Amino acid sequence: MNSKLEQLKTMTTVVADTGDIDAIRQWRPEDATTNPSLLLKAAASEAYRPMLEKAVAYAAKHGGSDAEQLTVATDMLAVLAGKEILGLIPGVVSTEVDARLSFDTSATLERARRLVDFYDRQGVDTNRVLIKIASTWEGIRAAEQLEKEGIRCNLTLLFSFVQAVACAQAGAHLISPFVGRILDWHLASSGRDSYPAEEDPGVLSVSRIYNYYKANGFNTVVMGASFRNTGEIEMLAGCDRLTISPALLQELKDDQGTLARKLNPETASSPDKPGQINEKQFRWESNEDAMATEKLADGIRRFAADQIELEHRVRQLAQAA
């Protein structure tokens, strides 16, 4: 019998949740996704040293203030990493806009367009690039405009149903609901040590979104993310895409059990009725969801902190050059 990983690949596109070039080379996923946290870890490896140096040199030629050169260097580093990753996979790579711009639509648009331009300058087919943006109201509005321009987006840090509905209505190409972080919040708030996989709050959230999209004809791709265990992954078998860490990929590869399909567009049904979400409703429903509000804010802070640390490393390299 094939491993659970091989069985999963027959019903779901498997994405590598890592920026580690060696790990991507080993696992050969269909797609890959990065974020500031993953890039920060990867940048400590020797494999990224030439990219760091090239990014710093490019920023120096670009000119501008020290702060401007720093943002150019980190954006170029993300693009160079994405280019390297695309040479190892057949699909797409996601590259994230600076999380500190999460509440600024115009600034998000500017940085997203620059990332795409940088990819184009590197000779990369930009149809193979997804721009990752936090699922704030402002981020969703930026994604709506970018999609109209032909720039496909991955709406990340998604924790609530109202976020998912707003993203679909905006025509977002893909969403990344964070399964594990939803579980983390519920464990902390309930005092429980665990949930059975079929009762996992993160699993239930993604299943609800998936069924709503399929039952109502939305084309937005659902990519479950941020898993804490393989049980969560197995309960979402059949989801459009799942982005999985190397450690959990290994567990699935080592498991020779039978993997049943849990999500299927042909049998999807949803009690949730489609309706247009406006800004007031979005903000109210977000406010009413303590988990989503807290985890979105926490996620933005974490990504911003890692972006700042990445900039610190780039600055050190530039000063030593």
Note down, in words, how this protein is organized:
- With 321 residues, the protein is an alpha/beta fold.
- The chain has a single domain (4-320), classed as Aldolase class I (TIM Barrel).
- Helix content is 55%, strand content 11%.
- It has 14 helices and 8 strands.
- It has an 8-stranded parallel β-barrel, surrounded by 8 helices.
- Strand 1 (13-17), helix 2 and strand 2 (31-33) form a beta-alpha-beta unit.
- Helix 5 packs across helix 14 (290-320), helix 8 packs parallel to helix 10 and helix 9 (179-190) packs across helix 10 (201-215).
- It is globular, with a radius of gyration of 19 Å.
- The N and C termini lie far apart (54 Å).
- The mean pLDDT is 95.
Q: Poorly predicted ranges (pLDDT <50, ≥5 residues)?
A: none
Characterize the quaternary organization of these chains.
single chain
What is the domain tally? 1
Helicity range of the residues? 40-55%
The count of β-strands is 8
By CATH's scheme, which homologous superfamily applies? Aldolase class I
Largest sheet: 8 strands, parallel, barrel
CATH architecture annotation = Alpha-Beta Barrel
Order of helices and strands: HEHEHHHEHEHEHEHHEHEHHH
Mean pLDDT: 95
CATH domain topology? TIM Barrel
Radius of gyration over all CA atoms, rounded? 19 Å
Structural class: alpha/beta
Helical element count?
14
The CATH class is identified as Alpha Beta
Instruction: State the shape.
Output: globular
